[in-house]
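Please check both lines for our workbook:

___
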Amino acid sequence: MPTPSLSRRTALTLALSAPWVSRLAHGQGSAGADFELSIAAGADPVSLDPRKTWVAQGYSMNAHVFEPLVFRKEQDGNVQLVPVLAESWTQTGPTTLEIKIRQGVKFQNGEPLDAAAVAYTLTSIMDPAFVTNLKTWTSDIESVAVKDPSTLVITTKYRTRGLLNSLAQVPIVAPRAAQEQGAAFERRPVGTGPYRYTNYVPSSLVVVERYDGYWGSPGKAKKLTFRIMPENSVRLAALQAGEVQLAENLPPDKMDAIRSTSGLAVVYTATLRVDYLVLNFRNPIMANRAFREALSLAIDRNSLVKNLLGGTTRVANSISPPGTTGYDASLPDYEFNLARAKELLKEAGYTGQPITMGAPVGRYSMDKQVNEAIAGMFRNAGLNIRFEALAWASYSPKYTAGGYDIAFVGQTDFTVNPHKHWASLFYSPSAINKYSNPEMDRIIEAVREELDDAKAVELYKQGQALERRNWGGALPLYYEPQLIAVSSKVRDFQPRLDEYIIVKDVTLAR
């Protein structure tokens, strides 16, 4: 008989447990046996160095090999931070955080974990010569000092809201290995986690094997193989054939096929990710507010959600996702009005110049199909769209370099404090799209120092309302749904709101 899907409510109750937090068993499995597990991933990690990884699939792989100081856990519906490589922390002053490092931990190459090792990771990311998007998470830090082998002192530039939440996104690397290997560290990096990297074939597979010297509870599977499969149909076929036991990021139009296949189940959950069309202000036409509003009004978001995403999510009403601090549920959903879009294009003086548009394939749910539909909607409004869709490994560097006038990307609010989430698109000093709005800059600079929750909520609401009026640096479309299909043999898999696929404690039924 076909295996039914788990409900949205069930999936939500399972989300956001850290991989090193023990779980209750949910069935008779193969714990302790030397079994292997294969996962179909939708995108290549591009780099295995966690200081450079900026894609969810890479986060998932790295979560088995590396660990941060603290990480996220959901408890009674609330997201909390739990200690991992940090044992404790104390705010010793308005801009000073003292962290006690866990003792007795070693990296997979035998290097000891100490305050100096943590300092190395942070300062290497902060180094102006080191190119990485992870600077977002360290941008508030003024200095990092080693007080003694077990104590790290972080001084921030100003009173900083959510610093520990940001540090949850910074996995700690082995200093000696990183320095000795140089560029090769991107292919075989070293961490403190329960698995170690043993093979990486770009755009093909990533293999990790259990590290027997791990300080915590060991991983259940002897080996994990992440097979890179950008095409949805290929991931599903591999699962149906038994080549993988778990397939991530499957599109809603495959749910019936999964349900009708004996021995498979599908789980889906809400996420903290907003899917945007990012507007590139290197093209002068993006400075025209009427043009930006026309773009938004030309998009029938309800049609996308209903017809392509199977009703598994909702249309965006804000640049922030529900569940984050200050999310304003009172804002109306973004409107579709084709006639008004055409009028605004005329008002903006648009005369048919080509507009380039790009999207990834397999990185997000139905990404290629959604953006093909949007390109058609833009053409219906009178825009001259030149569209292409590429595998993430090719799309990501082109997007980062500003290669498109309009680009599709999803961003997750990992810190649940939106100013970090907004920084790469709506804050002029760090906006990848060269967007600039002095009023939004002021709001972000004020809220990042605001420790009073009520005042922070008000500032976050101001930022959402401002970008809604301004049709600013990116146009929200909807909140990314996460659909994962699993073999019925899989035990103890837990989907997460942050979209990490973590299988350290997964077993297979005998």
